[in-house]
Predict the 3D structure of the following.
Amino acid sequence: MAMLSPDAQKVLGLSIGLGLIILGVDVFFIASPLWTKYRSARSKYLSIERELEKSRAKVKDSELLVYIKNLKDKISALESNVVTDVDMTFVLEDISGIAKDSGLTLKQILPKEKIPVKGRHKNKLYYVKLLFTGQGSYHSLGKFISRLENSKYVCKIESITILPNINDYRNNDVRVVIYILSRKE
């Protein structure tokens, strides 16, 4: 590489120095404010992101509260369908009405026994076993079972016995064992 003359070295040195000064001024007056704005914007972004996460948590909490309230409402609705000992007379009348509306002839409904519900409600809930005897067609019996299962009472059908009636082939003798959920008052 060729040696530069002393005047060329001075000019080169001044050019490099001037370039460094311009670069320093540029960094100080242009890049520094941009860097400050970037840090400020990043700080605001992170702050908004934290607020968003808190809001999401609050929304989840409020959704959870709404879900819990809905469950409590469902439980209350179910509890209102669970009868008490006092209501059992009305239950028997309703079952009699359901049988009549379905086309069955009621012979009798007998409460047989109380069976405690196992689990955490064992001291509060029990099943009342009912024996329904009547007479009617298969169609009437099907209607009766359907209406009973769709009634306001919490019940389950344990068994259905159909005995043919020798005197009237269209009307069979029927026995239905029904369990009605009940609670202590």
The radius of gyration is 43 Å.
